[in-house]
Structure formats: structure tokens, C-alpha cells
What we know:
Helix content: over 70%
Structural class: mainly alpha
Radius of gyration: 14 Å
Amino acid sequence: MLGNAMLFLIIAIIAGVLGFSGIAGVASTIAQVLFVLFLILFIVSLFTGRRR
């Protein structure tokens, strides 16, 4: 999932440099959502995975 976030971040950067503002905005939003979701799942797994 972190890989997908990084992929959309790279797409957003490339689209921003080339001037495709619509595509850059969408890719940036997707990257932010995936990154936040990854962080939430990571924190949850830290708390639930160590209870053995």
C-alpha cells in the first residue's frame, strides 16, 4: 500500500512538472489518502500484533 502511495506521488510530481494540473491534483489526493491509510493500519498493527 505504501508502494501505491509512492507511485501516485511520483505521478503527481511528473504531472505537475508537465503542467497537467487536473491529473496532478487527483494523483496527489490519492497519494495522500493512501499514505494516511497506510499509517493508520501500521499503528493498529503495532498495537495488536505484540499482544502474544
